[in-house]
Structure formats: structure tokens, C-alpha cells
Specification:
2 domains; BirA Bifunctional Protein, domain 2; alpha+beta
Length: 348
Amino acid sequence: MKEQVEVLKKEVKERLGKTTSLKEVNTIKTEYLGKKGPVAELTTHMRELNSEEKKEFGKILNDLKQELTSSIEAKIKYYEEQELNQKLASEKIDVTLPATKVPVGAPNILEKIIEEIEEVFMSMGYDVVDGPEIEEDKYNFEMLNIPKGHPARDAQDTFYIEDEKILLRSQTSPVQVRTMLKAGGKEPVRMICPGKTYRRDADDATHSHQFMQIEGLLVDKNIRLSDLKGTFDVIAKKLFGEDCETRFRPSYYQFTEPSVETDISCFVCKGKGCSLCKNTGWITVSGAGMVHPNVLRNCGYDPAIWSGFAFGFGAERLAMLKYGINDIRVFYQTDLRESETFDRKEAE
């Protein structure tokens, strides 16, 4: 049987040397190493041998299998590499052809605006605070100096959930109340609260029943309206450029006294007058004012010792101005043509 083993080795070596294709090598592999091949047939003779002979012949068979397998696999690898090289040589790629456009995502512009504002306020020592969107009437209205029956409640047409006691918050000001109550009237407060708010508005190009509000509050000793003006200047220059100017105009809100409308100089016409600023040279971006003494008192602060200012931005309003978006509804739709616009502006 040892002679048969040597004969098999010689046969396989000769046949592999004459092959011209991968198919021929695979045929040899099946023929010699298959279940009905000569190597398998030699294994059947093991039962005719005694224990010592089985050990010796078993080693010979294992060496045979390993040697044949190694030789055949080497030949297979050779032909596979040959086929690959031929394919690479015959196939050409025109690198001047336009590439396939791969869609690339980007954060929503509202997120970008909010993150920019958060970074500026955190650099000035403010905390970013969150609060519940399902709110109690007393936090959303009463403690903000808006009692039941007050006409201001009509202006914030509210989504009530339960007996006019539980509602979807119409502003993020309740978070300011909760923060002041938590401080117990004894500690300064510096915070902003970005978050969703809800009002019964008819959806159109400039109004939405759901929108993002960014409100801020600072309560401390000896706070003046000039501190609010300085804070507003920092935000305006960060968002709209260092040459952006700001101004206050008298206004009225129930939770601030005095109250102001905050304007920025038009960044399109530089104050000369255009359609964006309605030929005034100024654009209104937020409402603000000094915290009303009643609100301070309701939250445990003595107005004779403590004072503060509050302000509120609409994130959609700021994004529409900064990025030239004309319809607020695009922020909440899934039209890919609009989201591509977001991606481009994010890249800029």
C-alpha cells in the first residue's frame, strides 16, 4: 500500500502540472480527495491491519491527504489570482465620469440655532434647564401674573387637557417659575429654557400650533434694564454678525415691568430699508423686560432686594431670518427637497 501512496502522489503532481484552468484543478480535487476517490479507498484497508500497522499506515494516509490538499489548493490560488489579474487588465474605469451622489444628513437648522444660543449663554454662566410640556395652569399663567379671566389668556389660546387645570404649555415661562421656586427666593438664578410650546394657531407660512421657544431668566441683586440690553447685544452679534445693532422699544407683557420689544438692525439692507425689514431698517426678534414684582413675590423673592430680567425668542423666527426660510412649516415636514436645503446651509 505504500507503493500505491507514492503512485498517487506522482499522478496528482503530473496532472496538476498539465492543467490549464481552474476547472481542471477542481476536477482533480474531486477525483482524488472525494468520498469515492483513491485516497478514501485506501482508508478502507485499515480494517485489515493490526494495531501497530494501523498507526503507521494512518500516519502515511494523513501525510498524503495534507500533501495533496496543499498542492491542489496552491494551484487553485494560482488560477484565481490569474483570473483576477486578467479581469483587472480587461476592465477599465473612467474616473472622469460624474460620481454617484450620496445623500448626507445634517442636524435640523432649529437644533443648530438652539445649540448656538445655548453655547453663548453657558459661556456667560447660565444653566440650560428643561421642564414638563404638560403643565399646570398655575405655573403657566397664575404665578406669571396672569390670573383666571385675564384677557392675555385669550391671546395664548391654550390646549387644555383637564378642566382648565392641566394643559400643554403655551410658553416655556413655567420653567422659570419652577426654577425660582426651587431656589427658594434666596439664590441668584441664571437659566435658559429651550423647548416646545403649543397654541391654537392656524398653521400658515408664519404661524404654527407647535413651535420652539427659547426663554431666559436672570434674577440677582441690582439687576437693571441695561444688563438686559448688554446680554441682548451679545446674542445678536453672535447670531447675525459683529456689525449688528440692537434697540429696545416700549411694550407690554403681564410678567415683566417695564417690558420691551427687542429689534436688530436689518442684516440684508444694513438699515437702508428693504422688504425683509419693511423699509424700517429694523427687525423685531424677541420680547423681554424686567421681571414683574408680582412674579418675584409669587416665587418667594422679595422685590425690594431682588430684581431680574426675562426674555423670549422663537427659534423658528431666528432660523427663518438667518437662513432666508420663508415658510415655518418646512421645519416640521419630511420633504427631502427642503431637508437638502438644511444640509446645504449646515455645510455653509
